Amino acid sequence: MKDIRGAVAIVTGSASGVGAATARLLASQGCHVVVNYSRSEEAARTVAAECEALGVETLLCQADVADDAACRDMVAQALDKWGRVDILVNNAGTTKFCEHHRLDGLDAEDFQTIYGVNVIGPYQMIRAVAPSMQAAGQGTVVNVASTAAITGIGSSVAYAASKGALVTLSLSLARALGPQIRINTVCPGFIQGEWLRKGLGDEQYAAAKAHNERQAPLGVTADPETVADAILCFITGPQIVTGETLIVDGGRHLNTVPLARR
User: Fold this and answer.
1) Which of 22, 99, 110, 130 is the residue whose CA sits 20 to 30 A from 3?
2) How far apart are CA 208 and CA 193, in angstroms?
3) How far apart are CA 17 and CA 35, in angstroms?
4) Which H/E stretch holds residue 101?
5) Pair 227, 248: CB distance under 8 Å
6) d(CA 130, CA 218)
7) Confidence band for 257, pLDDT divided at 50, 70 and 90
8) 208 pLDDT higher than 70
9) Rounded Cα distance, 2 and 9, in Å
10) How confident is the model at residue 197 (pLDDT cuts 50, 70, 90)?
11) In this structure, are residues 113 and 94 in contact, taking their beta carbons and an 8 Å threshold?
């Protein structure tokens, strides 16, 4: 296993959920962390404090990854503080909850907003960190997509399409940026937590969770810590792996049956 003590990681969208769990897990391994948020400053400060309590340094950085100048500035701040960026976890994401058959529920602006964060944002972040990683001779990127990319289900058609594009982006850049930079993708399924609960509402959240657990051969759904574990595997595991996609859903994708229309 690769030792990441003293390494520097940027985790986008790390004020809550998978991003926060990943920041804490990396900190527990001795990795300094850039805690990024777009709006939730108080939550991000809490995550940074939790990481610092584990004995590492943090940098709190407000940035919308859809803004290229903000991406470049975030990387510049990390380089100013530590002189290096070893790890990038592209976790920031957004969606609009819209049943797939409701074609009038999405417009061009919805697609542009979702693609701006979910696809263009990771591209801009990778572009921003690439020069320093290439100069150092190594770097690791993990993109957080979704099983929506593989199965075409999820919170909306625009979201599923954006995550499919992110998987393709990962393949293209893994090929283009080797041998110095490794790029892999994690595709979680249903993730327990407030993001889905807020988007679906309590009743539909409970129904979706139960449905996913029934359809999963392992009978479970992921939580933020589960996904963070998978991300860490790509960072500290075999250093020969690049361009791979890991599905984290208890096997749910093997029995993909969308929820019936209501």
Assistant:
1) 130
2) 12
3) 13
4) none
5) yes
6) 38
7) low
8) yes
9) 14
10) confident
11) yes
Residues 74, 135: contact at Cβ < 8 Å? no
- Average pLDDT of the residues of the chain: 95
Closest-CA residue to 125 (of 16, 21, 9, 230): 9
In sequence order, what E strands does 32-104 have?
32-37, 58-62, 87-90
Give mean pLDDT, residues 169-191. 97
3-state secondary structure of 246: strand
- The Cα 246–Cα 234 span in angstroms is 9
The residues with which 188 forms a beta bridge, in sequence order, are 248
Two tokens, residue 25 = 């897990």
Residue 159 annotated as catalytic: yes
C-alpha 75/C-alpha 42 separation (Å) is 22
By CB atoms closer than 10 A (0-12, 13-18, 19+), residue 142 is buried
pTM, rounded to two decimals: 0.94
Q: Which of 37, 115, 123, 159 is catalytic?
A: 159
Tell me how far apart the alpha carbons of residues 142 and 87 are, in angstroms, rounded to a whole number.
Answer: 8
Domains along the sequence of the chain with CATH: 8-249 (3.40.50.720)
Measured in residues, the chain has a length of: 262
Integer-rounded Cα Rg, in Å, for the chain is: 18
Separation CA 159–CA 150 (nearest Å): 12
Sheet holding 245-248: strands in order across? 58-62, 32-37, 8-11, 87-90, 139-144, 181-188, 245-248
Q: Are 159 and 116 in contact (CB under 8 A)?
A: no
Asked, as a colleague might, if the bond just before 131 is cis with ω within 30 of 0, I would say no
With 0-12 CB in 10 A as exposed, 13-18 as middle and 19+ as buried, what is 102?
Answer: exposed
